[in-house]
Design brief:
The complex is a heterodimer.
Chain A lengths: L2 E5 L2 E11 L2 E9 L27 H38 L5 H10 L1 H17 L3 H19 L19 H32 L2
Antiparallel strand pairs in A: 1-2, 2-3
Helix pairs in contact in A: 1-2, 1-3, 1-5, 3-4
Chain B lengths: L27 H7 L8 H6 L2 E3 L21 H6 L6 E3 L4 E2 L2 H7 L4 E4 L10 E2 L19 E4 L2 E3 L6 E3 L2 H4 E2 L4 E2 L6 H4 L2 E5 L13 E7 L2 H6 L1 H12 L10 E7 L3 E5 L8 E5 L14 E3 L4 H14 L10 H12 L4 E7 L34 H11 L2 E7 L7 H4 L1 H4 L5 E3 L9 H16 L3 E10 L3 E7 L3 E4 L2 E7 L5 E7 L8 E12 L4 E13 L2 H6 L3 H18 L2 H22 L9 E3 L5 H9 L12 H13 L2 H8 L2 E4 L9 E3 L2 E3 L17 E5 L3 E6 L5 H8 L20 H13 L8 E6 L5 H5 L13 H12 L2
Parallel strand pairs in B: 3-26, 5-11, 12-13, 12-17, 17-18, 18-19, 32-33
Antiparallel strand pairs in B: 1-27, 2-4, 4-24, 6-7, 7-8, 9-10, 11-26, 13-14, 13-16, 14-15, 20-23, 20-25, 21-24, 22-23, 25-26, 28-31, 29-30, 31-32
Helix pairs in contact in B: 8-9, 8-14, 10-11, 16-17, 16-18, 17-18, 17-24, 21-22
Classes of the chains: A alpha+beta, B alpha+beta.
Amino acid sequence: MRRWIYCGRFRVYITETRFSSCGSSIFIMIHYAAVPPIGGVRATRRFSSDSEESPGSRRESGSAEMEAAVFILSLVDCCALIFLSVYFIITLSDLECDYINARSCCSKLNKWVIPEMIAQALATVLMLVSMHWFVFLLNLPVASWDVYRYVKVPMGNMGVYDPTEIHNRGQLKSHMKEAMIKLGFHLLCFFIYLYSMILALIND
Amino acid sequence: MRTVLNHTCLLPVHLNARSPYSQPFPSLSELSSALGGLGGVSELEAETLRPVNLLQERNILPPKRAPPPEPNLSNDLRKVNCSPDTFRCTLTNIPQTQALLNKARLPLGLLLHPFRDLTQLPVITSNTIVRCRSCRTYINPFVSFLDQRRWKCNLCYRVNDVPDEFMYNPVTRSYGEPHKRPEVQNSTVEFIASSDYMLRPPQPAVYLFLLDVSHNAVESGYLNVFCQSLLDNLEKLPGDTRTHIGFVTFDSTVHFYNLQEGLSQPQMLVVSDIDDVFIPTHDSLLVNLKESKELVKDLLNALPGMFTHTRETQSALGPALQAAYKLMSPTGGRVTVFQTQLPTLGAGLLQSREDPNLRSSTKNVLHLGPATDFYKKLALDCSGQQIGVDLFLLSSQYSDLASLACVSKYSAGSVFYYPSFHHIHNTAQKQKFQKDLQRYLTRKIGFEAVMRIRCTKGLSIHTFHGNFFVRSTDLLSLANVNPDSGFAVQMSIEESLADTSLACFQAALLYTSSKGKRRIRVHTLCLPVVSQLSEVFAGADIQAISCLLANMAIDRSISSSLSDARDALVNAVVDCLTAYRANGSNIQPSGLIAPAALRLFPLYVLALLKQKALRTGTSTRLDERVFSMCELKSQPLQQIMRMVHPDLYRIDNMTEQAALHLNDSVIPQPPLLQLTAEKLTREGAFLLDCGSVMYLWVGKCCNETFIRDVLGFQNYASLPSNMTEIPELQTTYSERTRAFISWLLESRTFLPAFHVVKDDASTKTSFFQHLVEDRTESAFSYYEFLLHIQQQMSK
């Protein structure tokens, strides 16, 4: 028996209230209603301590909810990617202007290469799973480029950003260009997700 | 007035009499009209632009090694310009725009040898060092004085004020003539740096020797040679009273030596925890050389004997290097590593990656890059603490030099390799090791150095070649700087240079001398800017271009593949000659035409393709290949040119004709011969000067006077097969030969190994592989290469 409330389209379960040393904190589990099985129902809006669901499924609203949820997650992911791109651009331009040296710049950037790859892969997989083919195909080249770049690092190099090579052969400029292109791409994706999310929320 | 340089006055020898265009050297007006209205071209340029049909010209090599081309400047600028031995550009006429440079299809770059041993060096002791306010260029002979009180920077064109102290000239004791001061009269000067140029008080000279004492190392016997050499040169190590020295030996554990002043004999401290190596005591491992000299000598005398019965076969090089780093971090200095096998224990252990069956593969050569980033990271750590690591590799088996060399490459150290070193079985290597150690221990050294290369506004540097770490866009961090390393940079033209007629380059090297004085050595080079493609070709410096292409090819073979690099080299020649043909009007449509300035281009590129670093199809050990690559990237230009295209002389019939008379000795000047077996004859003896090794090839029917008078044996048959020096006999022949050879070796720093090669000896392959114009089973002959280029050009 769990207590839950409706918060917009989301059913919010209140799992437990715990008093910690810094005050009480409420652990909240956010649960979006998965597509209910045929015949399954969703409860009407009220406080209820039982989790019985009234008959009559509304599959469209369930899937619209999922849509919105997917896009919200992708939006958050995309935000993170935007911040990462901006961070890359700032660090690389610091190196260009001599505010930091090559070693610290490269160690900072190398730390965030794998998180970036994971975030990009997450966005791509989300789009695949929720069957938005166009956006999936849009994200796929960037994700595969990330993986290719990571895998192609020669054995003797200290990561994707190598301090001994970064000043050679215009690598600094090409990394900067890459970060700018990614920033532009993520901004575009951000607006796509935002628009799709609003659409999904409205269609609910 | 400019005179026509002798070496370009070769009349083409036309073998094909039916060619309708065979004619002697055309007059200036004919050339002008033929080259498409150059008009007003100087004699010098006309000479360097003289078209040469490479397919027909048999004697392409000048009789003496060509001097570097002179830039087309006025006489006073030429007199003060930087010496080409120090600072050399691939194009002595800088193109105005990037488009023009692209049209010429030649690389633009600089080759530097900034810390070269100089016989005369003006040292400026004034308190103020005059520098431009915006770009921080040092004042140099090519600035312009607007009036007595203001000067205009030649790199950024900013107008600066002349400080008061600068108005007084200490040399002539006159006032009011700033342009007569030594900084403005010499392009190579040394300033004494004030405390503004120091991040910390100047460090003393600190030397640490890391010695491999595994069973393999003791077998090879290098320890004896090293200890003896160091004992002989202990007084001559560069430094002052603060010089420190230390020793660390390693096999499967790391051993330190306590050399504290009061001890009766050196104490050995063994650290066996190689996974977390620590320093056993904090002082007295690096001791003051003057105070502990007796103990150091005792240790050096005892060291070879201490490990004769060792059974350790493993080598923990990585932990030893980590220990050395910890030991030297407080001060910085130089670490010299002696290694005789693959490191098999601890951090940085390496696997054997070479497949002996693929040594002569014609396809890609693998494993040219490092296997792990351990040595690179360590080198960067060392570079940050001003520690330079030099590597002496004395192994007979594969030791993954590609990974090990990283520790020297990025900490501004040098790599030395003695393949198959053994003190009994390979006396040639042993002698070379001794001679090299002699030079290595006593040569000048600079510590905690940085170098900055500045160019005129509009030019920018985009790639660096050499042993250093590029800390920021144009700042090179060199933990140690030595007089035997060369550097190269590639440039591009970002903005048009149309509004200036002179382009200047300045290399400033800030270092701490071994006596603890902070110095700045500044070299400035000035070159004219041109707007015509033909002038760009006229000013091409073919030796510098070949060296820069070698550097680029090595980079390409490590980042992409060896075959890519080889193709790129051939394409460089094809593109350049196509660009020349497209530019000039076609006077000779058949044949392979090149301007006289570039006539040796295909020959040098063919020689590069046959170097150990870049050759395919001939069995080459991976370590030797990687070492050849390291040499090509870090040696100064003259050394590289001798390595790539050695000098061949016939010495059994040298005459006094055209000889040099120096210091009451007569030095004969035999002409340079082309590197082909056609020029060898059984009746002669020939000397091949390859820079680091010299061969004296004696033909089977060589005249007995020569063998008796110069080599000291009765006849050809009695010559031993492993002779490594010429005896000092009192005959004219011997004196002449020895005078010639010493004249060749005069300004060399590392003395070459010397081999006398008989015609039927098994060692003759090492002699014949240097004859680059000949055909081998996997490579073209020179003529075939020219035909190949012609074929590519017509595609």
